[in-house]
Amino acid sequence: MAPYLLILAVLLALPAFPLEILSDSLTSRRGEVIAEGRVKVFHHEYVIEADRVRYIPQKEEVFAHGKVKITRRDGSLSVKGSFGYVNLKEDRAYFLNVDGKLEKFYVSAERVEQKAKDKYLLQKAQITTCPPSKKELKVCISKASLGRKYLYSIGNSLRFFNVPFVYLPVALFPVGERRSGLLLPMIGSNTYNGLIYRQPIYWVIDRDKDLTLTLDFRDKQAKGAELEYRQAYSDKDSLHTSLSLYKEPSSPGIWWKGRDSSSFRENRYRFALKFKKGKLKVGVDTVSDPFFLEDVYFSQSRRTLPYLTSYLSYTMENELYLASLNLRRYQDLTSQVNRYSFVAPQLGFYLKKKKIKWFYFSLSAEYTKFNEDSALKGQRFKLDPEISLPFRFRPFSFYFSLRSINNFYRLSGDDYDKAVNALLFENRTYTFKSFKLGDYFISNTLEMVYAFQPGKFNNPRFDRLDVVNKRNDLSFRYRGTLLRRGRVIASLFMSAGYNYLASYRFPTDNEIVDKNWLPVRLVASVNLFEGFSYYQDLTYDPNLAILAKSTGYLRYSADKYYLNLGFVSTRNSKKEKLSEQLSFDGRWKGDNFFSGLRLNYDMKEKKLLYREVYAGYRGSCWSLSLILRSTYYGLREDYVNELYLGISIFDLKSLVFPISRN
User: From 178, 325, 405, 645, which residue has the greatest number of CB atoms within 10 Å?
Assistant: First the structure.
């Protein structure tokens, strides 16, 4: 046997607890096993390393001395210390002068005692989620009990770079991803309120369900609460619902300046529900007034939602058909009176393509009831059978189709046609060509489409499916992609066409243009270098010499930098600007410091609609950031300025303080 290593396998009296000891020296006397020099003890629960280990097989006790390291195989414990005791039979232990990891925390303590598999008692300890080499933020405690659900501690001092700045005599913290308890609050003030306090309370009801109650106090504006409930039925099926109730002062405050007085509500609410179970989907989202989101929430994305959607849908599908039921209601938040809504009960049926000889047959049917408060109301029934013939001849693929369009309407008044019956013939011809040049691969697709549809109708226009115009046009589409070593470095899409009827609708304002050439569209993207990309989408009318639409961006992304410059422009058939905006988003992230700038400028209105600048510092397990934001509100014809302080401690959810809002 080599003098530097001695291996001994000792089987305990209870065969469920096999033990293996590796050491430089191993002796046995008076029923004890003593191992010295680079000792390693392997157990099905623990791995123990030490300078000296004394093991008593009869009691299944292990005493470790010197440079001790004890690790549980499930990862819940990994500590170093000067002494360790483990009772393998009763799953109890205690350790002295500990430095290591317990559950999700890094811990240093004079003594750690394991009372059970998932329960620890700590004395004179420091706890943090920062890496062991950078304990910039930590909690110093006198005594604590740590379990899988909670950490209960006495004599707590929160220290930042070892300087105490918060003291709590007693504290209870949830441990893990889903634990009941108090979440981080939001405290601050704004122009309208001297004090804002939002306190979320989280309750884990069971493994598949939980609940959050958020209490919201404001000394001037509405006071209220939000109750949010979540339940999972499977990986795909779930229920998520929330109810927010707020009480406004009896008369409108200064935050209602510029708003329609009829939209004021003393009792304000929002109710939201999302339910999915198999083929059934249900969603409800409604508010008491169009300004609820703006007044209650603090994030820009939630404040500026243009509308809320409620829906119900159910689908049935097999190899032969697809049947569906859809009901949608839109609540317009851009309307001050909050009255605009749109309800469309829709029944749909699609008979999937079935091959008959060389042909394919399919059928779609649909019933929709339109109910728009400020527009046309009525009912529509669609029945569209289609027969198609695909075949290939050498490098070309052909797809011929003949569809019968049958729309039937029921509405009051005789201003519109009650029925539309038309035939649409289409021929699509494709050809593909790809080739390789060294590291480069180029793919090309050319498509030619001829469409013919006789007839012109004065039918009601509820949506795009009602657009049944006379057609006789030929269009071409090209798609090309350039790859280098499997990475796309450039792509191009182009479309153009010729209309034999010398009449088409302009792409932005839908006005009729009595010309032959159809608008040209070009979509290009370039990614020549890693992190650099350029994108452009153009629609050009050659007859009127108008750039109808233009959307594009230039983007650069690296380890520390992100830059994005965007442009959007639209014009109508009279060459008038409908919109023209520039946007910029720049970010920098260093090892610790980070900063950013966001701008949105309207070239038509000559106003800076949105600006945000932020800077901050990210530590080992904490971060501090300052955000300055200014948003232009057309309703008030003025800017709303906000200043936020963002704090994140122990890598938990960010705590945001709104310092001011003008």
Answer: 405
Q: How far apart are CA 143 and CA 360, in angstroms?
A: 77
Q: b/e string for 156-189 if b means 16 or more Cβ within 10 A?
A: bebbeeeeeeeeeeeeebbbeeebebebbebebb
Determine how many CB atoms are found less than 10 A away from the CB of residue 192: 16
> Which domains does the chain possess?
6-148 (2.60.450.10), 184-343 (no CATH)
Alpha-carbon separation of residue 551 from 269, 478, 557 (angstroms): 38, 20, 20
- Give 6's Cβ-side CA count (13 Å radius): 15
pLDDT per position as a tens digit, 109-158: 999 898 877 788 989 988 887 877 777 778 888 898 887 777 788 888 87
In whole angstroms, give the CA distance from residue 607 to residue 599.
11
Sequence-separated (6 or more) residues with CB below 8 Å from residue 374:
339, 340
Q: Please list, in sequence order, all residues whose beta carbon lies within 8 angstroms of the beta carbon of residue 285, skipping any fewer than 6 positions away.
A: 270, 271, 272, 273, 308, 309, 310, 331
Q: Which amino acid is at 495?
A: S
- What's the pLDDT score for residue 450? 96
Residue 334 in 3-state DSSP? coil
pLDDT at 338: 65
The two tokens of residue 188 are 């601050």
The pLDDT tens digits of the residues spanning 614-659 come to 999 888 777 788 888 888 877 677 777 777 776 666 655 444 444 4
Residues 328-346: tens digit of each pLDDT:
888 888 887 766 667 778 9
Helix and strand counts by DSSP (H, E) for the chain: 2, 44
pLDDT at 312: 95
Instruction: With a cut of 90, say whether residue 306 has pLDDT above it.
Output: no
> Using one digit for the tens of pLDDT, what is the confidence trace for 351-361?
999 999 899 99
Q: What is the dihedral of CA 331, 332, 335, 341, to 10 degrees?
A: -50
What dihedral angle (degrees, nearest 10) is formed by the CA atoms of 172, 177, 180, 181? Answer: 40
Distance CA 642, CA 630 (A): 6
Residue 422, C-beta contacts closer than 8 angstroms, at least 6 positions apart: 404, 405, 453, 454, 455, 457, 468
Task: Give CA separation, 212 vs 241, 293, 331, 458, in Å.
Answer: 11, 19, 26, 54
